[in-house]
Design a protein that fits this description.
heterodimer; A: 429 residues; alpha+beta; 14 helices; 15 strands; B: mainly alpha; elongated
């Protein structure tokens, strides 16, 4: 056989072998995985879950603030690739050189890299028998695959909050007035059961009525933040928590909840120095008016005062000088359609000086998203009930987040979940 | 002059005034000339009525001539003692058009003032005045004009209605709101403004109050139904239930239900559209509405809804056409049993001759019997009616009969029924015959051209597209077995054929799995995934496998299979379905309602 023919055959075989290897080999691992959080991401919400699970597995993660919508950098390990594939999360494999180039870009602009060092221990304040679909945070964490523990009044009164880094409150009324739903729902089975359960818990801790129990719970939550905890509250929990804390020594509850009318001078006796976010608000004393105070700008349950929904804008912060605020507003959208809740927004006139406004409706007298420090801890308040159900009502169908995997409103919730995972840096502003 | 300069910014047509100043001046001069010396005009048209001349001049784009003619007409109509309202209205509106086109709309203000001296409540003049002020941005003067009209008109609603309407058109919903509120307060008859109130609510996206106002307004102003339909089509999905509640609320009346029906159609809910009108008391108007609804449903290919509407029409009118179309719709919807019931019903209302019934309904009856696999009965029907049918009709009825035989897998009887017809040229019939005979090439060629999209045809095309052999008698037997409703036997045949069809093997096994019992299918899914991992059937088999495991209650195994699909076939078109199923199984999203 001529040499050139044999050579050609060997060459053909070699090419076939290379082709076969290329066809059947799995993609080689790179050094890093970037989870972009701009419009290139197929599932923003699950990306938080992938990052959380990486931290839980002891991996190191970084959060690139203001870079590609707040992208995450994870190590390229098979488990994370598999998890991203299962969750439909877009990932981009990067080499060390790619990451170095990216870091140079971040160093040169209003961007920063924050190291996420451990998965936070998360508690959600919710009754055990509550279906998870009624609470946006529970929905978001469940969908993203982020672990949490449910805590309720017994646990809070026993001091169990100290076991957690991050506590979320949703639409509970901490003034003990059930958001003044008594007149409309007093005979509804769920309302009767809720009342019975609260009275029973109250008796265990020496409280004779629901407002007394809830004030105790609110004060424990305040103490949790003061000692260094992270608190996130949405909807009616924001307003009612501060009202409950401020009214620790005065009766603001209607007779249907504690058997006595509110103190006629309740307004002047409120101690706002104890409150987290608000000051100088006025109590709504009428049991027929479905509002607790004038903190809420939208007053959705008071037809004569209800304000229409607009859209709110997220502020841009300096990633290098103000990383905390920057983390909380990372998003692929900066203007987000508003959504109602028992408390939808916060009148600027009653927000304490020093509180950071993270989002507000342009031209409106209210803000939507607040953050502040209290003692050694910090808190964040987001108005509204469900970012993807703007007019959520009692009995409404639960929101299916697999239909909203890119929800910018839900991203705000998940920013809060990962924020306690960040390695603490001294705040520069 | 200051207001003019201010207005120039907001109203671009003022620019045209500036640019066309010379033209305007000439036009005005012409108008003056024509007013003083119109009688001496020498053109032939001058002899005609000035209104006619104005309209003719407008058609010829002769603005100068038109305005002169309209002014002449107006002067004539306004002479003391003979104020002719109609002529004044036509002339005024003509002047408004001409001067608006010429960019000199403000010229109409003194003309309108002159008219109002003679006719203080003339609605056309008042309307032109308001419209002119508003379009020029002279809001204070518009408000004054409205106040003057209101005082002159006493208790009439026209000033409020016109002013609110113009404000709404200008997008000033809040200003319109205050006008309508004032009207309600002063006149104590808010209902008189329901139409305007509804438009106002629509402009403010207050859909529920809007639909309430429309419902009220349609009592006296039925023509508002079209406006309501147009405006309410954009109601967002989450508010539609509230709109439905308003239109469905008692008392049950015709117009709101018809409006709701049209809205439901526009929202893509044909079944609800039918529900809205199906319970209306049956009278002639309702029957006419049902009929037009059924025609619309046919156009929309909402066959089940069309069937129900045509059946309702038939119950009321008893005509053969509605019976025929009801049965046809039922067949097209895939409900042959109901179609058979419909064609066999006799009207209790009208009487139709038997010969007419046979001609109109026999084809549908045979088609329904064929669909149901009752070929013998269909043949019997055709034979019984043979004497009453001419050869052409009989030939035309052969197709549903042959289709019935083929669908039942009765190849010999199908061929016999085809004798003497031209059905050998029919792609669907010839294609099925070729398939049953194992002629893969001809079957593929003919069935691809078939007009039908029946499920068994789609299945057959799927298999044919993957089969590379030219003759495969076993394949014909497998499909014939399937047509005879022996799915277990057909499944075995398809799986047996897999060894002889090369790369098409996974398609044959997958077809076998689809026809098998779930516990037997699992082994076939396993074979596809294990032996043919790169075939398109592999992710499909994994998805079906995972679902079968889930339904059997083996949640961990189902999760494993869903995950295998997502990891190994992440780019498959089936991945989103698998991910959703997986999330639901893990409880990450709410259970399906």
């Amino acid at each position: 056989m001529p040499v050139h023919t044999r050579f050609a055959r060997v060459l053909r075989q070699a090419l076939f072998l290379v082709g076969a290897v290329a066809l059947f080999a799995r993609p080689a691992l790179a050094q890093h995985l970037l989870l972009p959080m701009d419009d290139g991401q197929r599932n923003h919400l699950k990306a938080y879950g992938v990052t959380y699970q990486a931290l839980k597995a002891g991996q190191k993660a970084e959060w690139f603030l203001n870079y590609r919508g707040g992208a995450f950098l994870l190590p390229d390990v098979p488990d994370l690739r598999k998890r991203a594939a299962l969750d439909g999360v877009s990932v981009e494999p990067l080499s060390d050189a790619d990451v170095a180039s990216m870091r140079a870009e971040i160093a040169g602009g209003n961007m920063d890299a924050v190291v996420l060092e451990r998965s936070p221990k998360i508690a959600i304040y919710r009754p055990v028998d509550q279906p998870p679909w009624d609470d946006a945070v529970t929905l978001a964490l469940t969908y993203a695959g982020i672990d949490f523990t449910s805590v309720w009044d017994d646990d809070v009164m026993k001091g169990d909050l100290s076991k957690y880094d991050w506590v979320h409150l949703h639409h509970e009324d901490f003034t003990g007035q059930y958001n003044k739903l008594y007149l409309a729902y007093r005979d509804a089975p769920w309302f009767v059961a809720q009342r019975e359960r609260d009275l029973s818990t109250g008796r265990k801790f020496g409280k004779n009525d629901v407002p007394g129990l809830k004030k105790g719970v609110a004060d424990n939550i305040r103490g949790f933040v003061e000692r260094g905890g992270f608190l996130f509250a949405m909807c009616g929990a924001t307003e009612s928590l501060d009202l409950s804390i401020a009214s620790f020594a005065v009766d603001i509850a209607g007779p249907f909840s504690d058997g006595t009318p509110p103190d006629p001078n309740a307004d002047s006796k409120l101690d706002w120095t104890r409150a987290l976010a608000f000051q100088g608000a006025h109590i709504e004393p009428s049991p027929y008016v479905n509002a607790l105070s004038d903190i809420d700008g939208h007053q959705v349950n008071v037809p004569s005062r209800r304000q229409p929904l607009g859209a709110f804008s997220l502020f841009g912060f300096s990633a290098k000088l103000d990383p905390v605020a920057s983390m909380l507003v990372q998003n692929h959208r900066t203007v987000i359609p508003d959504f109602y809740g028992v408390t939808t927004s916060f009148n600027k006139a009653v927000v304490k000086t020093g509180v950071t406004v993270l989002a507000q409706e342009d031209g409106a007298p209210w803000s939507k998203y607040l953050h502040g420090d209290y003692g050694k801890g910090s808190w964040t308040f987001l108005g509204g009930h469900d970012p993807e159900d703007p007019q959520h009502a009692i009995g409404s169908a639960p929101t299916d987040l697999s239909l909203h995997p890119n929800s910018p409103g839900y991203r705000l919730i998940l920013n809060n979940v990962l924020f306690p995972a960040a390695k603490k840096k001294p705040r520069k502003t | 002059m200051a207001p003019r300069r201010r207005n120039r910014v907001a109203h671009p047509w003022y620019d045209r005034v500036t640019h066309r100043l010379c033209t305007g001046a000439v036009a005005l001069a012409s108008v003056c000339l024509s007013l003083t010396a119109g009688a001496q005009a020498s053109k032939p048209a001058s002899a005609a009525d000035p209104l006619s001349r104005g309209l003719e001049a407008e058609d010829k784009r002769d603005r100068v001539g038109a305005s002169a003619a309209y002014r002449e007409a107006l002067t004539g109509a306004l002479s003391v003692g003979s104020t002719d309202g109609d002529r004044i209205a036509v002339a005024l509106l003509g002047l408004e058009r001409v001067w608006n086109d010429a960019g000199m709309l403000d010229s109409i203000v003194p003309v309108v003032s002159r008219v109002l001296q003679f006719r203080p409540t003339d609605p056309t003049a008042r309307g032109v005045q308001l419209r002119t002020y508003l379009s020029m941005g002279r809001d204070a003067e518009a408000r004054d004009a409205f106040t003057t009209w209101r005082r002159a008109a006493g208790n009439e609603a026209a000033p409020f209605r016109e002013y609110a309407r113009l404000l709404l058109q200008a997008g000033r919903a809040l200003a319109a709101d205050s006008v309508l509120s004032e009207a309600g307060r002063l006149m104590g008859a808010a209902g008189a403004f329901s139409g305007e109130t509804a438009q106002l609510h629509l402009a403010l996206k207050r859909y529920v109050p809007a639909v309430r106002a429309f419902r009220e307004a349609m009592l006296d102003e039925p023509w508002l139904e079209t406006a309501a339909l147009f405006g309410l089509q954009r109601v967002p999905a989450e508010t539609r239930d509230s709109v439905r509640a308003v239109l469905l609320a008692p008392p049950v009346t015709f117009a709101p239900r018809r409006l709701l029906s049209s809205l439901e159609f526009a929202w893509g809910e044909p079944r609800r559209a039918w529900s809205a009108i199906s319970t209306l008391p049956a009278d002639d108007s309702t029957t006419a509405t049902w009929r037009s609804f059924a025609e619309r449903a046919e156009l929309n290919e909402s066959w089940l809804v069309a069937r129900e509407a045509w059946t309702a029409v038939f119950d009321r009118a008893g005509d053969i056409e509605s019976q025929q179309r009801a049965a046809d719709a039922s067949l097209r919807a895939g409900d042959a049993a109901a179609a058979l019931n419909i064609v066999r019903r006799k009207s209790t209302v009208g009487k139709v001759a038997d010969s007419v019934r046979v001609r109109a309904l026999l084809g549908l009856e045979i088609a329904a019997l064929g669909e149901l696999g009752r070929g013998n009965e269909a043949q019997q029907k055709l034979d019984d009616a043979a004497k009453k049918l001419d050869p052409d009709t009989r030939a035309s009825l052969a197709r549903p009969l042959v289709a019935g035989w083929l669908r039942a897998g009765e190849v010999a009887r199908a061929k016999a029924a085809m004798n003497g017809t031209e059905l050998a040229d029919d792609d669907e019939m010839a294609g099925w015959l070729a398939l049953y005979e194992g002629d893969v090439v001809n079957a593929r060629k003919r069935l691809l051209r078939a007009a039908s999209n029946r499920p068994e045809l789609v299945d057959a095309l799927g298999i044919l597209a993957r089969t590379r052999v030219e003759q495969l008698p076993g394949l014909g037997e497998a499909f014939a077995t399937l047509a005879r409703k022996d799915s277990t036997g057909a499944a075995k045949r398809f799986v047996q054929l897999a060894d002889s069809v090369g790369a098409a093997a996974p398609a044959f096994i997958a077809q076998g799995a689809r026809l098998s019992r779930k516990n037997e299918a699992v082994a076939l899914y396993d074979r596809i995934v294990r032996d043919f991992p790169r075939s398109p059937e592999a992710p499909e088999a994994l998805l079906a496998w995972a679902r079968a495991l889930r339904e059997a209650g083996d949640k961990p195994a189902a999760i494993t299979k869903f995950e295998q699909l997502l990891v190994d076939y992440g780019t498959s078109a089936l991945a989103p379905q698998a991910r959703r199923d997986l999330e639901r199984l893990k409880g990450a999203i709410p259970p399906a309602v």
